[in-house]
Amino acid sequence: MKLFPGLFFVSCLALLGIRIVRAGSVTKLGSICTVHPSADGVSDDAPAIRQAFDLCGRDGIIKFDPATFHVESVLQTTGLRNVIIDLPGKFLWGTNITYWRANGLPLGYINMTTAWMFGGDNILFQGHGVGTFDGNGQLWYDFTQGVSNLPGRPISFMIRNTNNSRFTGLRFVQSQFWTMAIKNSEDVLLDSIYINSTSSSSAPARNTDGVDTFFSNRITFRKWTVTGGDDNISLKANSTNILIQDSVFHGGLGVAIGSIGQYSGLYERIENVTAERVVCLGTRYAAYIKTWTGIQQGFPPNGGGGGFGYARNITFRDFTLTNLTNSVAHITQCTSFSGATGGCDTSLFQISDITWGPMTGNVATGTLASMRCSGSAPCPNITFVDFDKIATAGSRKISCSNVRPIFTKSRREYNSSKDFQSSP
Ligand SMILES: *[C@@H]1O[C@H](CO)[C@@H](O)[C@H](O)[C@H]1NC(C)=O
Ligand SMILES: *[C@@H]1O[C@H](CO)[C@@H](O)[C@H](O)[C@H]1NC(C)=O
Ligand SMILES: *[C@@H]1O[C@H](CO)[C@@H](O)[C@H](O)[C@H]1NC(C)=O
Ligand SMILES: *[C@@H]1O[C@H](CO)[C@@H](O)[C@H](O)[C@H]1NC(C)=O
Ligand SMILES: *[C@@H]1O[C@H](CO)[C@@H](O)[C@H](O)[C@H]1NC(C)=O
Ligand SMILES: *[C@@H]1O[C@H](CO)[C@@H](O)[C@H](O)[C@H]1NC(C)=O
Ligand SMILES: *[C@@H]1O[C@H](CO)[C@@H](O)[C@H](O)[C@H]1NC(C)=O
Ligand SMILES: *[C@@H]1O[C@H](CO)[C@@H](O)[C@H](O)[C@H]1NC(C)=O
Ligand SMILES: *[C@@H]1O[C@H](CO)[C@@H](O)[C@H](O)[C@H]1NC(C)=O
Ligand SMILES: *[C@@H]1O[C@H](CO)[C@@H](O)[C@H](O)[C@H]1NC(C)=O
Ligand SMILES: *[C@@H]1O[C@H](CO)[C@@H](O)[C@H](O)[C@H]1NC(C)=O
User: Fold this and answer.
1) Would the pTM of this model clear 0.85, i.e. be above it?
2) Pocket perturbation via mutation, ligand 6, pick of 239, 260, 267 by most ligand atoms within 8 A of CB
3) Helix/strand/coil (H, E, C) string of 193-248?
4) pLDDT of 107-144, one tens digit each?
5) For atom 7 of ligand 1, which residue has the closest CA?
6) Domains of the chain listed by start with CATH number
């Protein structure tokens, strides 16, 4: 067994009878690193976490003690390879808002930052249903007071340049901002994931999306439970071959495609998405699609528009709906700078081949669908399957503009989708 410098130094001091606060530490046995939290239970454990990833992040195993680890500084653990990470305890992020706003690592697309940049190949990150990321988010909800996309408010966990990997049994509570972002990744499975960002004050847990994807292919989300203040799972620029299965969404907006088309002149696409066996409890929609208008107003993250590209072949089926607060299906191409209206017919972003249904359950309103496609790029091939099985409060309104044609069908035969990868 090797002792690493921090621990060794402290042990020597201890032998000399000098009492100091022991920082988080790592013991390495063969290729297995075990991470211990600081003895005082408050000091920054991030240096020990970094050390464990440096020592065992390639062809190794990183085990955390079943304890709370305080993360007071940003983490960048990238270039990992063939590693198993075992988290039976909890990461708790620090409360120095000034520090986090100044030091987040860039998402590298939209002007946002993360508190932990993570990536590599052939990674298994397992939490056994208890391993927890606690973003100490209440502090951020109170500080932000509902302001959208406050600069420097960090995404909890960003998975970047990651292939052939699996994240399983992890819990994310009180995220600072979006819980996760996945970017430039392929063949990643995230299963048995619990997310809950709930504000206990009058300030909303705004922008606490479950996960946002960018430039990623063959990503599977299975068995997610999401409670939060915004989109649950949101697929953005160049997300392809995405599968969402067996998940439960409490409140929030439901499955989101977009916003997309935010960057003037950029071409982006979303293609081949299936979401199946999803339970929506009091969400605003079952699933919806939103693009920016064709006219740029302001700059991202809160402004933008004028992007183009397409979203196609997207299927939402076998949803169970309870008390949706708006409608089952929704499309808007009117997203613009906060407060700006109009321009709904200007987007060139093309939406087509979208299927909602079969679905069962109820909407608490009289609207089944509201779809506002752009006059400059009307939406062909919108299909509702078995909407007659969905109960409403009275009328069964379907409103649409620039949608042609709409098909309504009864149940079609299909088999459950398989995921794309053989993950570790
Ligand atoms: C918070 O972080 C800022 C910027 O890094 C630093 O100057 C300040 O001393 C920190 N405050 C506390 C209480 O640690
Ligand atoms: C992931 O796969 C892509 C394309 O298949 C490749 O370009 C990239 O280098 C891979 N990244 C890692 C971290 O293995
Ligand atoms: C980008 O974010 C930084 C802080 O993270 C902020 O200072 C800057 O104004 C932002 N830029 C834009 C264009 O929003
Ligand atoms: C989410 O967290 C809140 C408060 O922390 C709790 O009351 C609620 O039951 C949780 N929701 C779910 C679905 O776990
Ligand atoms: C999921 O949607 C529900 C309903 O709006 C919302 O309460 C919850 O906050 C969303 N979860 C996340 C993580 O956005
Ligand atoms: C998205 O993918 C398409 C097709 O590969 C590519 O042409 C486009 O440049 C990508 N968009 C961005 C913003 O990288
Ligand atoms: C649509 O996407 C699904 C996966 O979500 C795929 O199985 C199917 O082949 C695609 N259809 C077309 C026409 O591309
Ligand atoms: C979508 O799925 C079809 C059928 O499997 C495939 O041919 C096409 O390449 C996929 N599109 C993307 C962007 O992967
Ligand atoms: C749905 O709304 C109805 C009417 O308000 C209410 O009686 C019922 O308990 C709600 N169901 C759930 C699961 O919240
Ligand atoms: C509409 O769907 C049909 C059948 O899937 C397909 O043949 C046709 O190309 C689609 N049209 C457009 C404009 O996407
Ligand atoms: C479903 O799978 C079964 C067994 O593999 C196959 O016989 C059947 O044709 C499939 N049905 C569809 C609609 O793909």
Assistant:
1) yes
2) 267
3) EEEECCCCCCCCCCCCCCEEEECEEEEEEEEEEEECCCCCEEECCCEEEEEEEEEE
4) 988 889 999 999 999 999 999 999 999 999 999 999 98
5) 99
6) 72-230 (2.160.20.10), 232-424 (2.160.20.10)
